């Protein structure tokens, strides 16, 4: 019975999640000239096979074999017309019950960029000894001081916005509020600045805390999560979307890591960027722009961790490490961090099945990313993307998020110290 329920739920949820993509696609096909525009999408081999059969779509001759994204999960690049987007979306939804089952890789002008990118796509070199674990004293101290109360306060504040939709005034105001919080937390700390990363096509900015490293400032460690939320199918600008789990929980975790590092007067040797991405829920748009910008500027990112949904317990796992669109070598390091600093937790592993969050934007640009998640894929919080994604789904506590603070702190401390 539970199984049948969960299948029905999955289909229903699939519907909701996929609406993001359908409407995104629909939004892209307006004028007839635009609808004949050539685009490149990437999708899983089984989906690609069906799209070729049913819609006569052809594979793209672009080669991206060198990209990290393709090494961790096989993808096929397809050449399509913009007007086919909606049909593709519907087919993937109908036959595969998969959401975000494809990604737009390039269109128009950025096609040229992609060709160039694939030609020069070589992963940045990782430092030798990067994955050493040698900051036990500091990390264990931090781990003892994690405050569940602080996590709750931030989740409550963020989820009390009507929504954090990327096109709404609330979505902009919530990022403004977060910027002020992060500024207040870090104002006494040497080498820290907090800035907006403005996006050209929508009002919601991303927020970035840059904490400068003392020895290798040009090497960066990224800890990020998305600040936006979404619910409803129409009038999303006003639809209630508390997003307590998805993803106030991840942003609260990042905020608590920041507070703890400042409390320890931490002096990183590599730089750390803490990021609240805009517009994740509508196709990873904020993080895609940021990761592309870093890549174009030649920024040397040594490691990325994504926090998206960390406060819902599936009854079995304390944490589940996402295995696709992430970096194997860095994932092994993350598992070693769990063994060292959270030896008692139950850690599972699971693929997400598609580019389900902002880690994928970094992976696409050849940067190593990891994504520790709240639950097994069949048992995650089914209230996300609805008005019911509130704290009472987590029994009004933030207990499940606590080990994520320790892991994220361990990740940035160990990676930012030589
Ligand atoms: N937090 C979700 C992703 C997620 C959901 C991961 C369930 C694991 C289990 C994220 O905010 C999201 O909804 N992502 C979009 C991505 C799409 C717009 C490319 C999604 O899954 O629809
Ligand atoms: Zn999310």
Describe the structure.
It is a single chain. The chain is an alpha/beta fold. It has 2 domains: 2-113, 2-Layer Sandwich (Alpha-Beta Plaits), CATH 3.30.70; 136-416, Zn peptidases (Aminopeptidase, 3-Layer(aba) Sandwich), CATH 3.40.630. The chain is 43% helix and 17% strand. It has helices spanning 2-28, 32-35, 45-55, 68-72, 85-96, 108-120, 136-144, 148-159, 169-186, 244-263, 285-296, 328-341, 359-364, 402-416; strands spanning 38-43, 58-59, 76-81, 102-107, 192-197, 206-211, 216-226, 270-277, 300-306, 319-322, 347-350, 369-370, 372-373. The radius of gyration is 20 Å and the shape is globular. The site of zinc ion has 7 residues, from helix 10.
**Shape annotation:** globular
- From the N-terminal CA to the C-terminal CA, the straight-line distance is 53 Å
Q: What's the count of strands?
A: 13
Query: Which ranges are low-confidence, i.e. pLDDT below 50, for 5 or more consecutive residues?
Result: 1-33, 65-71, 112-122
In round numbers, the mean pLDDT is 86
Major beta sheet, specifics?
Answer: 6 strands, mixed
Q: Regarding CATH, which class of the largest domain? A: Alpha Beta
How many independent structural domains? 2
Number of helices, counting only DSSP H or I runs of 4 residues or more = 14
List the ligand species: ligand BES, zinc ion
Question: Which percent range fits the helix content?
Answer: 40-55%
- Which homologous superfamily in CATH is the superfamily of the largest domain? Zn peptidases
Rg computed from alpha carbons, rounded to a whole number of angstroms: 20 Å
User: Could you please say which CATH topology of the largest domain applies here?
Assistant: Aminopeptidase
What class, by secondary structure content?
Answer: alpha/beta
Task: Give the helices and strands as they follow along the chain.
Answer: HHEHEHEHEHHHHEEEHEHEEHEHEEH
């Amino acid at each position: 019975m539970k199984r049948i329920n969960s299948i029905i739920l999955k289909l229903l949820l699939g519907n909701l999640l996929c609406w993001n993509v359908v409407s995104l696609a629909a939004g892209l096909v307006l004028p007839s000239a635009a609808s004949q525009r050539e685009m490149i999408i990437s999708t899983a081999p089984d989906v690609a096979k069906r799209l070729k059969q049913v819609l006569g779509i052809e594979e793209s001759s672009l080669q991206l074999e060198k990209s990290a994204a393709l090494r961790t999960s096989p993808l096929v690049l397809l050449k399509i017309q913009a007007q086919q987007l909606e049909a593709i979306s519907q087919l993937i939804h109908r036959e595969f019950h998969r959401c975000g089952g494809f990604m737009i890789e390039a269109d128009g002008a950025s096609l040229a960029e992609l060709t160039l990118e694939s030609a020069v796509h070589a992963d940045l070199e990782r430092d030798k000894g990067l994955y050493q674990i040698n900051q036990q004293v500091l990390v264990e101290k931090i781990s003892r001081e994690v405050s569940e109360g602080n996590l709750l306060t931030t989740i409550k504040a963020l989820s009390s916005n009507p929504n954090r939709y990327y096109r709404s005034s609330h979505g902009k105001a919530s990022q403004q509020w977060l910027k002020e919080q992060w500024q207040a937390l870090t104002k006494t700390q040497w080498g820290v600045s907090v800035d907006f990363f403005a996006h050209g096509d929508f009002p919601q900015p991303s927020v970035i805390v840059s904490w400068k490293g003392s020895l290798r400032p040009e090497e960066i460690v990224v800890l990020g999560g998305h600040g936006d939320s979404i619910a409803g199918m129409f009038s999303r600008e006003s639809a209630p979307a508390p997003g307590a789990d998805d993803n106030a929980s991840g942003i609260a975790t990042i905020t608590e890591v920041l507070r703890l590092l400042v409390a320890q007067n931490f002096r990183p040797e590599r730089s750390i960027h803490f990021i609240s991405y805009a517009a994740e829920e509508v196709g990873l748009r904020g993080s895609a722009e940021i990761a592309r910008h870093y890549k174009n500027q030649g920024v040397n990112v040594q490691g990325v961790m994504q926090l998206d949904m960390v406060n819902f317990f599936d009854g079995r796992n304390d944490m589940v490490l996402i295995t696709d669109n992430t970096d194997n070598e860095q994932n092994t390091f993350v598992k070693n961090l769990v063994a060292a600093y959270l030896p008692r937790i139950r850690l599972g592993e699971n693929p997400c099945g598609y580019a389900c969050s902002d880690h994928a934007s970094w992976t696409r640009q050849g940067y190593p990313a990891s994504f520790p998640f709240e639950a097994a894929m069949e048992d995650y919080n089914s209230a996300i993307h609805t008005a019911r994604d509130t704290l009472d789904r987590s029994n009004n506590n933030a207990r499940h998020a606590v080990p994520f603070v320790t892991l994220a702190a361990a990740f940035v401390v160990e990676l930012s110290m030589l």
